[in-house]
């Protein structure tokens, strides 16, 4: 029994395949015939339109030939001729008005073509309108986001201003409730606190300045005093260079014999002893130590003159030309008197200074 059932299934499958192929062939034939029919209909409509155009042209040519004279382009000045022209024009309008328009026959694809053309134009217009609307929408969204950010900033500023106004009002109310003595004591205390703060800052900056002088500036000032390079031209000046000295061209000398500490700073001591006298505990300082003492003493004297002002106007009188003074002038820390090169003062950085 099983082989018989298998053969029946196989035959059923074959019949289904043959039926599907026949149905597909029939569908293809229907589609081909429909396409052929559409092409035939379009061809017939095109031919009828061309025949209609030819007929209208022929009628126009016959009308032109039948006319003995061409129609006037301007109204005639004769009233009778003018009346005839008007009657002819009226007759033409009446004929056109009462005549039936030429419409495509039933089943013609022209209405469908016209509808398709109008629909395509409308679709194109709608797409362009959508693109324009999208662009405008993006621009409006950008402006909206910008306005939102501005609004948030304004709200935050308003909030902070309200808090500040509330604190000021609270402080004002507290001040009104206090006596004059309490207010004065608070102001004195605040000034003392500010004074202590500024004194600590001054000490900190002075210490930083002294460290810079001892570690970097003093060696370069000493080198310039000993005939070496100008301050800033050679940054790596060491003790050995200062002890060996410099040539006439400002180059460091190479000598294995170093002077003793007793005579190492004697030149600077003799030249600027009035500045460093009493400011250096070591009786025999080196060139670097002597130069550091000279720069510190010069800065202190300039600062005292600036704070004291008086008749000198913040100027001090130099006993001689020094590398420290020249460096302060080049660095725009101090300036010479415009009429006396021996007078020097610190530049008041709170005011405009002369170049």
Could you give the order of the helices and strands? HHHHHHHHHEHEE
| Low-confidence regions | 1-5, 260-264, 277-281
Mean pLDDT score: 77
Separation, N- and C-terminal Cα atoms: 124 Å
Number of strands: 3
- Rg from Cα: 56 Å
The structural class is: mainly alpha
Classify the helix fraction into a percent range.
over 70%
Structure description:
Belongs to the CENP-K/MCM22 family. Its main location: nucleus. Residues 247-265 have a biased composition (Low complexity). Residues 246-267 are annotated as: Disordered. By secondary structure, this protein is an all-alpha fold. It has a domain at 191-346. Helix content is 70%, strand content 3%. The chain has helices at residues 2-66, 79-98, 110-177, 180-225, 239-244, 261-264, 266-271, 273-276, 287-308, 323-330, and strands spanning 316-317, 334-336, 343-346. Helix 4 packs antiparallel against helix 9 (287-308). The model is unreliable at 1-5, 260-264 and 277-281 (pLDDT under 50).
């Amino acid at each position: 029994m099983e082989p018989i059932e298998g053969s029946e299934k196989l035959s059923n499958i074959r019949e289904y395949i043959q039926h599907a192929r026949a149905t597909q062939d029939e569908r293809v034939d229907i589609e081909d015939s429909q396409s052929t029919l559409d092409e035939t209909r379009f061809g017939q409509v095109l031919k009828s339109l061309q025949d209609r155009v030819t007929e209208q042209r022929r009628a126009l040519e016959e009308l032109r030939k039948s006319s003995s004279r061409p129609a006037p382009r301007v109204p005639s000045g004769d009233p009778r001729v003018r009346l005839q022209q008007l009657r002819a024009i009226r007759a033409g309008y009446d004929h056109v008005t009462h005549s039936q328009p030429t419409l495509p026959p039933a089943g013609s694809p022209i209405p469908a073509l016209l509808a398709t053309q109008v629909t395509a134009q409308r679709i194109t217009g709608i797409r362009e309108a959508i693109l324009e609307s999208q662009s405008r929408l993006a621009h409006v969204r950008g402006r909206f986001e910008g306005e939102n950010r501005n609004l948030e900033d304004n709200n935050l500023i308003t909030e902070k201003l309200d808090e500040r106004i509330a604190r000021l009002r609270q402080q004002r109310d507290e001040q009104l409730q206090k006596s004059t003595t309490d207010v004065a004591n608070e102001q004195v205390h605040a000034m003392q606190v500010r004074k202590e703060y500024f004194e600590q800052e001054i000490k900190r900056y002075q210490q930083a300045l002294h460290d810079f002088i001892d570690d970097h500036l003093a060696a370069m000032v000493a080198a310039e005093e000993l005939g070496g390079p100008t301050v800033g031209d050679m940054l790596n000046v060491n003790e050995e260079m200062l002890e060996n000295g410099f040539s006439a061209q400002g180059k460091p000398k190479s000598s294995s014999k170093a002077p003793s500490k007793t005579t190492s700073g004697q030149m600077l001591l003799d030249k600027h002893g009035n500045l460093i006298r009493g400011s250096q505990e070591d009786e025999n300082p080196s060139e670097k130590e002597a130069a550091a003492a000279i720069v510190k003493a010069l800065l202190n004297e300039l600062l005292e003159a600036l704070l004291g002002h008086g008749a000198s106007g913040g100027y001090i009188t130099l006993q001689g030309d020094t590398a420290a003074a020249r460096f302060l002038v080049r660095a725009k820390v101090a300036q010479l008197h415009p009429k006396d090169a021996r007078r020097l003062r610190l530049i008041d950085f709170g005011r405009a200074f002369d170049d």
